[in-house]
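Deviations from the work plan: none for this task. Representative record:
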Amino acid sequence: MDLAVHFRAAVALAGRFPALSGADLDVAAGEIVAVLGPNGAGKTSLLRACAGLVPVTSGEAVVLGCDLRSERTAVRRRVGLLGHDPSLYDELTALENVRFAVRAAGGATTRVGTALERLGLTGRLPRTPVMRMSAGQRRRTALAVLVARAPELWLLDEPHAGLDADARGIVGSLLEEAACAGAAVVLTSHEPDLAEPLADRVALMSGGRIAQVRAGGRHRPPAEPVLVALAEETADVA
Amino acid sequence: MWRDALLVAGKDVRIELRSRVALWQVLPFAVLVLVLFGFALGPGPSALRVAAPGLYWLAVLFTTVLATQRSMAIESGEGTRDGLRLSGIDPAGVFLGKVAAVALQLVAVQVVLGAGIVVLFDVHVATWWLALVASLLATVGLSAAGVLYGALSAGLRVRETLLPLLVLPIVAPVLIAGSRAWSAALSGAVASGASWLKILGPFAAVYLAVGVALYGPLQETA
């Protein structure tokens, strides 16, 4: 099994404050892991550490075969991060933003149009400056950057935030496609109902550590309607 | 590195053209500085002619601070800063690209200011090549020093007020050498003017080299 992420007792500092305090996490290629937890649990720091943006000061931290303690910058071109604040330039159009990100990563721009279409950015939207877009459209543009770049490791910080039902559905299928293509996906969420069905495994974070890991809903056969009804009746009786 | 520099310069120039901050704020500011200094010196044409090179370069220096602040503001959001770091672009390429974009703006400002001192202060340039070479070297030096110190102060909350304090004393040699070279260009004293180029050239080369070497670590700490 190829591990895209291998963290053992990883400690990371954000400035002077501990961001991760002994986090353990393995994510295999082709796997989707959802990280859940309360505010301040360290979910965002975990993603930023995986991307090489937050230095890991002790423990083991290997991402895509690169040791983050010594080759932090080497891994960055191969990773795609969707943060809270989308990495977009307001004055540029959606098309220009995606094209710049792809060219910067040394990729071919042939996928740019398809990526924008995939996120529902059609018609005049690709040629609209990002500053004139709604929050949801900006989020879609930031996701289109990831789709066009096709990184080996997708890191998504609350990817469903600010998106409508249609876009949330698109996010689900995009992550499934990325994982099927062999990419590893780590996403954080405050909405277990949305994140758990997408994930192979669900990691619960608390105090900068992974407190618990359980199976997610991906590839689990959907429940039979009869069984659901039976379960609801049982719950009512209880 | 050069490919990355072109990419970043193209992006920054496009953003400046769209935002029109350079056109509607930076350029009028530079002209205003020139005109106000002219008012301060009074209407005597000889005093204005003597002071013209110094006033010109002071206006260019103030413009450098504004242009650098704009250049750094483009990457001020956490998302865009992270995006640039994750893009895999060579930090030296980012530095050179930003220097090129700032230098382009300074060239545009200098064309207008040059026309301004010719019209307002009634000066005549005797040795054009000396004025042009001095401007070229000074522009590269000012842009490189501005972007380097802009990156140094980028992560700080007081960056807007700190940047002028860092940049203006550092670029004082450019003010002195640029003014003297231009004075020589106006009077036709080629030999004395050319000697000032020996300050402007190394200044630009040193700041370009230091920026290429240090921009990566500065980008990480910002």
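Chain B has a mean pLDDT of 87.
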